[in-house]
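In response to reviewer comment 3 from the previous cycle, which asked for concrete evidence that the modeling workflow produces usable outputs, we include below a single protein chain processed end to end. The sequence was submitted unchanged, and the resulting structure tokens are shown without manual editing.
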Amino acid sequence: MTNQLPRFVSWKPDPQAEAVDAFSRQWNIVKGYAFPPFCLLGRCLSQVLRQQVPCLVLVAPVWKSQPWYPLLLDLLVDFPVLIPQSPNLLTWEGVSHPLTHLQLGVWLISGNSMRREAFHAKLESSSQRLGGKTPPTSTLLHGESGLAGALRGKLIPFQHL
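The workflow returned the following structure tokens.
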């Protein structure tokens, strides 16, 4: 059993689960939390957009090279939070996840365009020319600049725990 909450949807039959297969459910009627298998992240983001989910707390890796990452940034309604790295962060039955240097973030996302635009309006514009070479910085965070990314020329910084 891997659930952390009293009500949950499982990816396989589980007698304590409310349901099996989260994609067969309506997400826009619950306040949800999701930490899906990484291969399903794109599908989860599409579900949030398609069903106009008002709010979902999503735990997902900071993988800027993934095709779903721009959509993740577009769905944000608050500043993402970085989870401190730890080799034992993800374990199951005493076995650690093979991606030991995995950087996870907590992302508050929404399919509601008005909520997203309100958040985007709070972001600071970048003075950097988009597509240009990234300037060196002294505030590196495990090889990163401390930014989740940029959206329409505006920077999205991470919050830290």
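Residues 26-85+99-160 form one domain. We consider this sufficient to address the reviewer's concern, and the full set will be provided in the supplementary archive.
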